């Protein structure tokens, strides 16, 4: 017999309240100067799916409620904790002071390929994702504890920020 798709009521998903009460994985996402509100919404969905502790929205990154974020988030702005922090460098320093390991997701000299990345046990990670065109700010790359680079094998230089987020989250959880 061929497989059949599950219906939504067969997924046994958590309610928003149950999700909020559930322990999150030891990482957060920092979005800096993300122009596309659809990308922001997609990141919220990914953060929900992979149980991120919090999403920080920095710089010009839009915040909920906004119809373009809501359209792609599909309700994840209600389940995922988020904060707007104007200055990403200030946030980076604050998180480091609290013991978070800051990982800029960028193509840079001395970067670590994601395939070679091994998270330290019992450590919390903050993954910084930058602007769709300019990437992670140089200042934040300099402040970061490490720079992670996703290996790419085609003709393009980068991936969409929402796609990158999914890869980073999945990879991190697989290595826990």
Describe it.
Helices cover 34% and strands 17% of the residues. It has 176 residues and is α/β, with parallel strands linked by helices. The chain has one domain (23-174): Alpha/beta knot. Strands 3-2-1-6-4-7-5 form a 7-stranded parallel beta sheet, sandwiched between helices.
Layout of strands and helices, then pairs:
Elements: H1 16-21, E1 27-32, H2 37-49, E2 55-58, H3 67-73, H4 76-79, E3 82-85, H5 88-97, E4 101-105, E5 112-113, E6 125-129, H6 138-143, E7 146-149, H7 161-174
Parallel strand pairs: 1-2, 1-6, 2-3, 4-6, 4-7, 5-7
Helix pairs in contact: 2-3, 2-7
Low-confidence stretches at least 5 residues in length (pLDDT < 50)? Answer: none
**CATH H-level homologous superfamily name:** SPOUT methyltransferase, trefoil knot domain
Alpha carbon gap, first and last residue: 36 Å
Question: What is the average per-residue confidence, as pLDDT, rounded to a whole number?
Answer: 96
Order of helices and strands: HEHEHHEHEEEHEH
The CATH C-level name is Alpha Beta
CATH architecture: 3-Layer(aba) Sandwich
What sort of overall outline do the alpha carbons produce when their principal axes are compared? globular
Number of helices: 7
Spatial strand sequence of the major β-sheet: 3-2-1-6-4-7-5
CATH topology: Alpha/beta knot
Approximate helicity band? 25-40%
Tell me what portion of residues adopts beta-strand conformation: 15-25%
Evaluate the radius of gyration: 16 Å
Multimer state: single chain
Task: Tell me the domain tally.
Answer: 1
Structural class: alpha/beta
Number of E-type strands: 7
């Amino acid at each position: 017999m061929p497989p059949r798709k599950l219906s939504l009521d067969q997924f046994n998903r958590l309610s928003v309240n149950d999700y909020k009460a559930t322990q999150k994985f030891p990482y957060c996402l920092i979005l800096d100067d993300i122009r596309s509100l659809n990308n922001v919404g997609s990141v919220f969905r990914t953060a929900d799916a992979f149980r991120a502790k919090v999403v920080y929205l920095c710089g010009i990154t839009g915040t909920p409620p906004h119809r373009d974020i809501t359209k792609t988030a599909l309700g994840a702005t209600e389940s995922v904790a988020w904060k707007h922090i104007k200055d990403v460098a200030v946030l980076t320093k604050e998180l480091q002071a609290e013991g978070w390991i800051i990982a800029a997701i960028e193509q840079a000299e001395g970067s670590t390929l994601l395939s070679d990345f091994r998270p330290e046990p019992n450590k919390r990670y903050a993954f910084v994702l930058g602007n769709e065109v300019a990437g992670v700010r140089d200042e934040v790359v300099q402040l970061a504890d490490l720079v992670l680079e996703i290996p790419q094998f085609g003709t393009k230089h980068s991936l969409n920020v929402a796609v990158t987020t999914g890869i980073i989250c999945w990879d991190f959880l697989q290595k826990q």
